[in-house]
Amino acid sequence: MTDTNPVAESVCSTNHSDHVPDRPLGSPLGDSAPCTCALLLGSGELGKEIAIELMRLGARVIAADSYAGAPAQQVAHEARVLDMANADELNALIADVKPDIIIPEVEAIATAELSRAADNGVQVVPSCQIAQICMDRERLRRLAAETLELPTTPYRFAGTEEELASGAAAVGFPCVVKPVMSSSGHGQSVMRGPDDVAHAWQVAQTEGRTAKEHAVSRVVVEAFAPLDYELTVLTVASSSGIVACAPIGQRQEDGDYRESWQGSPIPDDVRIKADDYAVRMVRGLVDLAREHGETGWGVYGVELFVLVDGSVLFNEVSPRPHDTGMVTMISQNLSEFALHARAVLGVPVSARSVALRDPSKVAASHAIVIAGKGEVSFGSIAQALAEPDTDLRIFAKPGVDGHRRMAVALAVADTEADARAKAGRVADALDVTVF
């Protein structure tokens, strides 16, 4: 075991720092002085933090989402509401706003319009190519396993129920089935044996992203692995190269993040493999972006499996700040959101930029998920934050209907167990009312 988590740093095969645009900043509401305009497509809690960091650097921020009053819309210079998956609506928004930079925070976006914007000189973050690849599990897995030769769980792809049965037999039972064009567990199911094939195929077709389009969804079937734990390695591509943050541990429920922690010791061989795989994955994506004249700059959330025997496997990558990375708001000198803002604006991000505030400590985040229907009010904030080295972010979403992540508690302590417990106490001390 190791007491520290050194970061990995890698310079891209081609350094494009000589081509960094000199973005004008500082007059977001001016009529005369030019100012860089960033359009957020998706304005949730992650987008809110991105907006704040961009505004701290003097950018003009326009926050778009499918509903009014989204978290980022409350702090941005301007808010827009539209169906971002509707090509006509998205094209009209881009034509009206004329952004210099487009930053997708969600996946349900008409990516063809992003390609059109990039062709017209708009910087799409991290790139159109990367957004399209990361939305498609088949393209992403083939890039990772077959091109970059990263280890993954055994897998097969299927376009029919019969192909699914054949693929499941090849990887073995039990196995998991996922639509190639979906996320957050939508359309996903577990097959324990051949009798589950028909049901798994039906779930993928009716609950995945293409369900509303009445199109057949291809699926990936993956073998179960003897999982010990999962890691997220936030990896930053900037004008100066690629750097990896210290690995982040996590706990999930029903495919959604509930806790994360950073700074906890992990075996040296696991840390080295995690850093290496994350940097290799991001470098592969950035190289593809540059082949198409795009930068590939930004934060990536590389998700990895660590097996009981210490093996490390690539799982997925999110081409944007990751929800488990909210812990960086208390663990690192620069949060994942500050790193994202700097990278997309062309600011070099070095290994020192992603350093932990105190490598001798462990930081933790605890998602606060509220159940009910109505507007949410938080009380007892003073009591919740009375303990030293704690913090809180209330997302200020308009309301909840069912279950919704509404805030996150943050804490720092000497050990992982103490940090997680402290963050949990912050959450438990809050007086939450749904009206």
Structure description:
The protein has about 425 residues and is an alpha+beta fold. Helix content is about 30%, strand content about 30%. The protein contains 12 helices and 21 strands. A hairpin with a 4-residue loop joins strand 15 and strand 16 (about 310-320). Helix 1 packs across helix 10 (about 335-345) and helix 3 packs antiparallel against helix 4.
The termini sit apart by 48 Å
Total strand count, please? 21
Total of DSSP H or I helical runs spanning 4+ residues: 12
SSE-based structural type:
alpha+beta
| Radius of gyration from the alpha-carbon trace, in angstroms | 21 Å
What coarse outline follows from CA principal-axis ratios?
globular
Sheet having the most strands: 10 strands, antiparallel
Residue stretches low in confidence (pLDDT < 50, at least 5 long) are 1-18
Arithmetic mean of pLDDT: 93
Strand content: 25-35%
Helix content: 25-40%
Quick rundown:
The chain has helices at residues 45-56, 87-97, 111-119, 128-135, 137-147, 161-171, 197-207, 268-291, 328-331, 336-344, 381-384, 416-429; strands at 8-10, 37-41, 60-65, 78-81, 101-104, 123-124, 155-158, 175-179, 189-191, 219-223, 227-238, 241-244, 248-253, 256-262, 298-307, 312-318, 362-374, 376-379, 390-394, 400-413, 431-434.
Topology:
Blueprint: E1 8-10, E2 37-41, H1 45-56, E3 60-65, E4 78-81, H2 87-97, E5 101-104, H3 111-119, E6 123-124, H4 128-135, H5 137-147, E7 155-158, H6 161-171, E8 175-179, E9 189-191, H7 197-207, E10 219-223, E11 227-238, E12 241-244, E13 248-253, E14 256-262, H8 268-291, E15 298-307, E16 312-318, H9 328-331, H10 336-344, E17 362-374, E18 376-379, H11 381-384, E19 390-394, E20 400-413, H12 416-429, E21 431-434
Parallel strand pairs: 2-3, 2-5, 3-4, 5-6
Antiparallel strand pairs: 1-12, 7-10, 8-9, 8-10, 11-12, 11-13, 11-15, 13-14, 14-17, 15-16, 17-20, 18-21, 19-20
